[in-house]
C-alpha cells in the first residue's frame, strides 16, 4: 500500500490519459473515471493512423522497429497531477508508439503511475515493462488488463452486455485493491 491514501487524493490531481482505436480501452478508462473522477483525456496524434487494419499494423511495426515516436496533438501540462492512469491497447506485443511519445516528452517523476490495457488475448506483452522503463522515478502501481477486441478477425468493440458487467466489477475490485 502506498503511503498516500489514494481515496483521499483530490479529483483535480487525477489524470486518466488513454489511447484507443476501437474504443475498448476507452470503455475501461470511463469505468475508472466513474469510480475515481479526475480528468479524462484521449490521446490524439498530429497525423492520425490509417483506418485500414493492415496499414496500421505495418506502420506500427515499422515505428516499433525503428523507434520512431509519432508526434502527438495532445499536449497536457502534468504539473497539477499526482496520479496518472495510462491506458493503451497492446500493439505488436508492445506499448503503442504514441504512448512511448507521451512518456518520452513528459516527466512523470514523483507521481503515481497506473497502467491499464486491453488486448486481443495475447496479453500485455512488454507494454507494462516499458512503462516502468520510461517512468524510472514514478511510483508505479499494479496495472489492470483485460481481453478487448480482435480487429484481425473483425471483432471491434466488445465492452457491452455481460463482458461490460464483468469488466466493471474487475475494474472496481482492482481500484479498491489499490486503495481507491
Ligand atoms: C496495430 C495493432 C496491433 C495489435 N497488436 C496486438 C498484439 O500484439 N497483441 C494483442 O493481443 N492484440 C493486438 N491488437 C489488438 C488490440 O490490442 C485489441 O483489439 C484492443 O482491445 C484494442 O483496443 P482499443 O479498442 O482501445 O483500440 C492489435 C491491434 C492493432 C490495431
Strands, total number: 6
Query: Class, according to the CATH hierarchy?
Result: Alpha Beta
Percent helix, as a range, is 25-40%
pLDDT < 50 stretches:
none
Give the end-to-end Cα distance, rounded to a whole number of Å: 11 Å
Order of helices and strands, N to C? EHEHEHEHEEH
Largest sheet: 6 strands, parallel
* Structural class by secondary-structure content: alpha/beta
> How many helical elements?
5
CATH superfamily: Flavodoxin domain
Mean pLDDT: 97
- Which value, in Å, is the CA radius of gyration? 16 Å
CATH architecture: 3-Layer(aba) Sandwich
- Ligand names: flavin mononucleotide
CATH T-level fold name:
Rossmann fold
Shape: globular
The proportion of residues in beta strands is: 15-25%
In total, how many domains does the architecture comprise?
1
Amino acid at each position: 500500500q502506498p503511503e498516500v491514501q489514494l481515496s483521499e487524493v483530490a479529483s483535480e490531481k487525477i489524470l486518466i490519459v488513454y489511447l484507443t482505436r476501437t474504443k475498448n480501452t476507452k470503455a475501461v478508462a470511463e469505468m475508472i473515471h466513474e469510480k475515481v473522477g479526475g480528468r479524462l483525456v484521449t490521446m490524439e496524434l498530429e497525423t492520425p493512423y490509417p483506418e485500414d487494419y493492415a496499414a496500421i499494423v505495418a506502420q506500427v511495426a515499422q515505428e516499433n522497429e525503428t523507434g520512431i515516436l509519432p508526434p502527438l496533438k495532445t499536449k497536457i501540462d502534468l504539473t497539477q497531477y499526482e496520479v496518472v492512469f495510462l491506458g493503451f491497447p497492446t500493439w505488436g506485443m508492445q506499448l503503442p508508439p504514441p504512448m512511448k511519445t507521451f512518456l518520452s516528452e513528459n516527466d512523470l517523476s514523483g507521481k503515481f503511475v497506473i497502467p491499464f490495457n486491453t488486448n486481443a488475448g495475447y496479453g500485455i506483452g512488454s507494454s507494462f515493462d516499458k512503462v516502468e522503463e520510461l517512468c524510472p522515478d514514478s511510483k508505479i502501481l499494479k496495472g489492470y488488463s483485460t481481453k478487448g477486441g480482435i480487429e484481425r478477425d473483425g471483432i471491434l468493440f466488445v465492452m457491452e452486455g455481460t463482458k461490460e458487467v464483468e469488466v466493471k466489477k474487475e475494474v472496481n475490485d482492482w481500484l479498491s485493491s489499490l486503495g481507491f
